[in-house]
Specification:
With 131 residues, this protein is α+β, with helices and mostly antiparallel strands. It is built from one helix and seven strands; from the N terminus they run αβββββββ. Strands 3, 4, 5 and 7 form a four-stranded antiparallel β-sheet that branches. Strand 3 and strand 4 form a beta hairpin. It starts with a helix and ends with a strand.
């Protein structure tokens, strides 16, 4: 029972911290209108308070072929217990995005590869609250 209560308190603390940061960053006040809040760019979707992420690209050689890949790494302030993340990337000559499944934001690095001969065009990370 005590562990469950502590978990609930940590989750509530994380949510309140996210709201506090969101209100501070956007300058949103409770008495303000909805149009006063700035809209976020389309590829900046997700929770960012309490989560730090890095991303990039790399390459490796398999036989005579060069494989190019995107990578992402996220860590939250709670040891990966309350947030999750996923990697989205696109490869040259493709008009769609590839995606990984959700992973806990516990410091792990996830990788997504493009087929041989293709380059990574874009890379982005989406974070989410893991209830």
């Amino acid at each position: 029972m005590t562990m469950r209560l502590k978990g609930s308190l940590r989750r509530m603390s994380a949510v309140l911290a996210a709201f506090a940061v969101a209100f501070t960053i956007s300058g949103l006040t409770l008495a303000g209108t909805a149009s006063a809040a700035p809209s976020a760019p389309a590829d900046e979707v997700g929770v960012t308070a309490g989560v730090s992420c890095s991303k990039g690209t790399g390459s490796s050689t398999e036989g005579n072929e060069v494989i190019r890949y995107a990578w992402a790494k996220c860590s939250d302030d709670f040891g990966g217990q309350f947030y999750r993340f996923r990697l989205l990337w696109s490869c040259s000559g493709e008009s769609w995005e590839r995606t990984t499944t959700w992973y806990r934001a516990d410091g792990r690095t996830i990788v997504g590869a493009c087929p041989a001969g293709k380059f990574v065009d874009s890379t982005r990370v989406i974070t989410d609250y893991d209830a």
